[in-house]
Amino acid sequence: MSRATPLPPRRRSKLLSWLPAVLAATAMLTLTPAATLAADEEVKPDARELGFLRDVALPQSDRGGAALSYFILIGTTVLAVGVLFKNANRTHLD
Questions:
Q1: Which of 19, 41, 74, 84 is 20 to 30 Å apart from 61, CA to CA?
Q2: Residues in Cβ contact with 15 at an 8 Å cutoff, skipping those fewer than 6 apart
Q3: pLDDT per position in the chain (94 positions), as tens?
Q4: DSSP states along 7-64
Q5: What is the pTM of this model?
C-alpha cells in the first residue's frame, strides 16, 4: 500500500487560496439559470375581461399627509450631506 506524499505548504496554501474563488464561480454559474427559470411569471388577464368595469380608488384619509415623508427626506439629506464634511484624518483615538 503506497502512501500519498503530502503537498508542500506553499503549494497547499496556493491551492486553498483558489478554492473559494472556484466554488463561488461554480455556484454563480449553476444558480443563475435556476433563478432565471424561477422568475417566469404567469400572464394575468385584464380586469376588464373579468367584468370589473368601474374605477377603483383608494379612500382619502383626513388625517395624515406628506409631512412624514418630507421629514424622512430632510433627515436623510442632512445625514448624506453631513458625511461629506467628515474629516478623513481623524481617528477614533482623538
A1: 74
A2: 7
A3: 557 777 666 666 777 778 888 889 998 888 777 767 766 677 778 877 888 777 777 677 666 678 888 999 999 999 999 888 877 777 666 5
A4: PPHHHHHHHHHHHHHHHHHHHHHHHHHHHHHHT--PPPPPGGGGT--S---PPPPSS-
A5: 0.31
